[in-house]
Automatic annotation (TrEMBL), chain A:
Binds 2 [4Fe-4S] clusters per subunit. Its cofactor is [4Fe-4S] cluster. It catalyses: a quinone + NADH + 5 H(+)(in) = a quinol + NAD(+) + 4 H(+)(out). [4Fe-4S] cluster 2 binds at residues 83, 112, 115, 118. [4Fe-4S] cluster 1 binds at residues 73, 76, 79, 122. It comes from Aromatoleum toluvorans. It is a peripheral membrane protein. Its main location: membrane. NDH-1 shuttles electrons from NADH, via FMN and iron-sulfur (Fe-S) centers, to quinones in the respiratory chain. The immediate electron acceptor for the enzyme in this species is believed to be ubiquinone. Couples the redox reaction to proton translocation (for every two electrons transferred, four hydrogen ions are translocated across the cytoplasmic membrane), and thus conserves the redox energy in a proton gradient. SUPFAM superfamilies: 4Fe-4S ferredoxins (SSF54862). This is NADH-quinone oxidoreductase subunit I.
Automatic annotation (TrEMBL), chain B:
Its EC number is 7.1.1.-. The lineage of its organism: Bacteria, Pseudomonadati, Pseudomonadota, Betaproteobacteria, Rhodocyclales. The gene is nuoH. It comes from the Bacteria. Belongs to the complex I subunit 1 family. It holds the Pfam family NADHdh. It comes from Aromatoleum toluvorans. One of its GO terms (molecular function) is oxidoreductase activity. It is a multi-pass membrane protein. Keywords: Cell membrane, Membrane, NAD, Oxidoreductase, Quinone, Translocase, Transmembrane, Transmembrane helix, Ubiquinone. NCBIfam families: PRK06076.1-2. This is NADH-quinone oxidoreductase subunit H. NDH-1 shuttles electrons from NADH, via FMN and iron-sulfur (Fe-S) centers, to quinones in the respiratory chain. The immediate electron acceptor for the enzyme in this species is believed to be ubiquinone. Couples the redox reaction to proton translocation (for every two electrons transferred, four hydrogen ions are translocated across the cytoplasmic membrane), and thus conserves the redox energy in a proton gradient. This subunit may bind ubiquinone.
């Protein structure tokens, strides 16, 4: 403790040397110079790059199919029961094989809070929150998504989150199409103090 | 016939220099945004042209099409002429600035500057001081508290920093025994004046930062407390005139630093053509200005004044004294 104070006192007494030669200013200049030539962290999102989310990302809902290509959902309505904001509507019916299937499976994306409880409660692992995050709309009616489009949605990603090359398609409902399956890890270029 | 040729040559030079000076701020705005971006690990403009190179053109087009808004209670005449008053002096400065040795084009021997006046340096300092009128007019005529405060600050700042700037230049004049800028540059052929005048350069550069109203002395347009300073109320073309004049003042200071302390167009080691050496050195100083801008915070107003009067003025007088002892 005593030594520390003495050191502080010495450095305080000799601060004028640094001040005279603008050491702190030079310090700052060298820091900004270093940053100037380090790689920028900008993700050029709509134009050239796109973020592929982590596998745990909770995006647009998706209904999974089994190995025969049939809807896994058995319309047990557990997801609709557990949903905290009542955004899932399930109406069951009996199909030609005598199995219970959803006739209606609507998810209101505008009301959903993406908690993932439906995914946890599903006994058949049919409903899941996938990797799609570009589904904005001008009307909230368009955000109520039905069973058939849920079946066609992209599921979870295999790769960890990365930035891939992409192409912006203004004609196709302003979507950004990813052109590679894996890119670089965005966090690599973030400067952190140890 | 002789007279005709001389007049024609001067006309060509005037047009050339004016056009170049109007064009130079355009890439500088792009450069500044790029440097700002990369220092902050961003990319800066990327979408218009290759790496945003056409962004200044888009900005210029936007400014041209904007409404030329004049505030209701303003002094309309002063408000309208202020940008021009601010714009003209930086152009006038370049009348006396030499860009290189004499060259011969199509067999005609000519020198790459408009006027080889023997009081060039004095003329430049005097004319550069006129820019302040544009700032005062702009701030006063806007009838806005931000503009008025900004122009008051600028006024005090420019006046107090002109003193050390003029004093710092005296050392150079004593060494070269001339106020003619091409003579000053020729006197630096064996050794640049930065070696003899490190203190003088230091004072000149800091005073130049203040004259160009760049960070850390940009109190005139401190965004946080004054909006945009004296051009808060301006829009469209008149605003862009203020911006052009600011960039030209920055260019003037860089050119003067190179001419007075860094050997003008004389190169070292690598034999390059004189204009390229000159442009490289000026570019370095412009980069320095921008680098400073995105590194340092702004000084407080009282700090600005005390640096000007209590540090730079005594130091510059000391510099004159030391130079005098060594010269005689």
């Amino acid at each position: 403790m005593y030594n520390e104070n003495a050191l502080n006192k010495i450095s305080r007494d000799h601060r004028w040397i640094g001040v005279t030669f603008f050491l702190d200013l030079i310090n700052g200049l060298s820091l900004t110079f270093k940053y100037m030539f380090s790689r920028s962290v900008t993700m050029q999102y709509p134009d050239r790059e796109k973020w592929v989310p982590y596998p745990r990302h909770r995006g647009h809902h998706v209904l999974r199919r089994d190995e025969n290509g049939e809807n896994k959902c058995v319309a047990c309505e557990l997801c609709a029961k557990i949903c905290p904001c009542n955004c899932i509507t399930v109406v069951p019916y009996e199909d030609e094989n005598g199995k219970r299937r959803p006739l209606v499976y609507d998810v209101d994306m505008a009301r959903c809070l993406y908690c993932g409880l439906c995914e946890d409660s599903c006994p058949e692992e049919a409903i899941a929150l996938g990797s799609v995050f570009e589904y904005s709309s001008y009307t909230s009616e368009e955000l109520v998504v039905g069973r058939d489009s849920l079946l066609e949605m992209d599921g979870k990603t295999e790769q960890p989150g990365s930035v891939v090359k992409a192409r912006y398609l203004p004609s196709a409902q302003s979507t950004v199409e990813a052109q590679e399956s894996s890119g670089y890890d965005w966090w690599r270029f973030i400067h952190r103090k140890d | 016939m002789e007279l005709m040729t001389a007049v024609a040559v001067i006309m060509v030079k005037v047009v050339l220099i004016t056009v170049i000076l109007f064009i130079v701020p355009v890439p500088l705005t792009w450069l500044e945004r790029k440097i700002a971006g990369h220092i902050q690990q961003r990319m800066g403009p990327m979408r218009v042209g290759w790496h945003g190179l056409l962004q200044p053109l888009a900005d210029g087009l936007k400014l041209l099409t904007k409404e030329d808004n004049i505030p209701d209670q303003s002094d309309r005449v002063l408000f309208k002429i202020a940008p021009f008053v601010a714009l003209v002096p930086p152009f006038m400065v370049f009348v006396a600035v030499p860009f290189g040795d004499s060259v011969s084009i199509l067999g005609y021997e000519t020198k790459p500057y408009l006027s080889d006046m023997n009081v060039g340096l004095l003329y430049i300092l005097a004319v550069a001081g006129l820019e302040i009128y544009g700032v005062i007019f702009g701030g006063w005529a806007s009838n806005s508290k931000y503009a008025l405060l900004g122009s008051l600050r600028t006024c005090a700042q420019l006046i107090s920093y002109e003193v050390p700037m003029g004093f710092a230049v005296i050392g150079v004049i004593m060494l070269s025994q001339s106020m003619n800028l091409s003579d000053i540059v020729d006197a630096q052929e064996p050794l640049w004046f930065i070696v003899y005048q490190p203190l003088g350069f230091f004072i000149f550069f800091i005073a130049g930062l203040a004259e160009a109203q760049r960070i850390p002395f940009d109190l005139a347009e401190a965004e946080g407390d004054l909006g945009a300073g004296y051009h808060t109320e301006y829009s469209g073309m008149r605003f862009s005139f203020f911006m052009i004049s600011e960039y030209l003042v920055m260019l003037t200071i860089s050119v003067l630093c190179v001419l007075l302390f860094f050997g003008g167009w004389h190169g070292v080691l690598i034999p390059l053509p004189a204009p390229i050496w000159f442009a490289l050195k000026v570019g370095f100083f412009i980069y320095l200005f921008m680098w400073f801008r995105f590194t340092f915070p702004r000084y407080r107003y009282d700090q600005l004044m005390s640096i000007g009067w209590k540090v730079l003025v005594p130091l510059s007088i000391l510099n004159i004294l030391i130079t005098g002892i060594f010269v005689y």
